[in-house]
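Slide 14.
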Amino acid sequence: LEFATISEKANRAYAKKWNHDYVRMNGVAFDPYRPGGATYNKIALIEKAMSARVYDALLILDADAVIVDLDQDALDLIPQDMLLTAHRVHSDDDPHTWHVNIGVTLWNLRHEKIKQVHDYWYRRTRRRLMLRQFPEDQSELHAILRGYGDERKSMVNAVDNSLVKFVRHVMRGTFGGGKVATSWHPWQGDEDDMKHRKFLLEEAVHDVCSKWEGVCEED
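Slide 15: predicted structure.
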């Protein structure tokens, strides 16, 4: 929760500036007994946003992601005919690849495939959790998107730079020139990597609150 407490200062400021709703999801939606089970909360967030029937889009940020451009309209980053905008893992990947990083995702809640993709993701994850297989949420969504084949051309907007300019995602392995942390769990991960990520998040938030003076809530 420490990362979320740091990043939400800038993220809340963005929501306030654009008059968007901001929700921080604490706890675990599906499996309270699996360490790191909050990774499945993305599925629950999509379901709640769909059920509300008042939203056009949903931006989901991992706790280690900070919005760094408060002037960017998030809706401009997702074409109306696309289901999902996300950062592609490799810059030379196809612009409609299934191989995206889901730490920062922008979902079109009006897309015809949104419920189908959500339901596939939910059922696959629940089934594997019941078998105590503990799937990794990103790999499950990857498998679903891969299955759509050419249909992804009207579903996945896999970008290279636009999300990077909008959101800074301080992922694992940022310390020491790309040294990979031993685990992404705060209580198991590489201590130097965790400290460095915390520093980078605090730095990003400070820069945002300094550039857009008065938009961030005081501590």
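Speaker note: The mean pLDDT is 87.
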